[in-house]
Each structure stands twice: as structure tokens, then as C-alpha cells.
């Protein structure tokens, strides 16, 4: 559980990420997009689908852009 603190937004985001990762491990959720059948060939298609969602990403406490951030995530988690 994340409790209120005086931590920076970045520290809070990192704590949330760590908890989310622990949850994934606990339920044996795939952690690589390849386990879902997604390969690097699909990265550009996924980015095209994500582009209209930039407004939602703009509400994220950590800056996140479809280009280059989403591309980096997708490329780091596909083979």
C-alpha cells in the first residue's frame, strides 16, 4: 500500500511501479509483450493506436510521450 508521504512525485511513482511489479510476479502475469505474442514488427502499429491517447498520458504525474517514451517501452519489452 502506498501511504501519504512527503516524497517527490518521482519517488512516489517509482514506489508504485515497484508495488505493481510485485503484484505481477505474485499473479504470474507475463512481463514481456512477447509472452502475449507481440513482436517488434507491431511496434509502429501500436504507436499509431496510442497516439490519440496522448491526452490521457499528459495526465500522468510523470511526463510520458508516445514518441519517444512509449516506443522505448515497447521496444524494450518485445523481441
Strand composition percent: under 5%
What's the overall average pLDDT, rounded? 91
Given the helix and strand composition, which structural class is it? mainly alpha
Q: What is the β-strand count?
A: 0
Helix tally? 4
What coarse outline follows from CA principal-axis ratios? flat
- Give the proportion of residues in helices: 40-55%
Order of helices and strands: HHHH
Q: pLDDT below 50 for ≥5 consecutive residues: which ranges?
A: none
Q: Ends: how far apart?
A: 33 Å
Rg, nearest Å: 15 Å
Q: What is the subunit arrangement here?
A: single chain
Biggest sheet descriptor: none
Please provide a written account of the structure.
Helix 2 packs antiparallel against helix 4. The protein is built from 4 helices and no strands. The termini are far apart. The mean pLDDT is 91. It is an all-alpha fold and 79 residues long. The longest helix has 18 residues.
List the helices and strands and how they pair.
Layout: H1 9-26, H2 43-50, H3 54-57, H4 66-76
Amino acid at each position: 500500500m502506498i501511504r501519504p508521504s512527503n516524497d517527490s512525485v518521482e519517488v512516489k511513482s517509482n514506489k508504485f511501479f515497484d508495488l505493481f511489479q510485485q503484484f505481477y510476479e505474485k499473479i504470474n502475469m507475463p512481463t514481456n509483450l512477447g509472452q502475449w505474442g507481440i513482436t517488434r514488427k507491431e511496434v509502429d502499429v501500436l504507436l499509431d493506436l496510442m497516439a490519440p491517447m496522448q491526452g490521457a498520458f499528459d495526465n500522468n504525474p510523470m511526463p510520458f510521450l508516445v514518441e519517444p517514451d512509449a516506443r522505448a517501452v515497447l521496444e524494450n519489452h518485445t523481441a
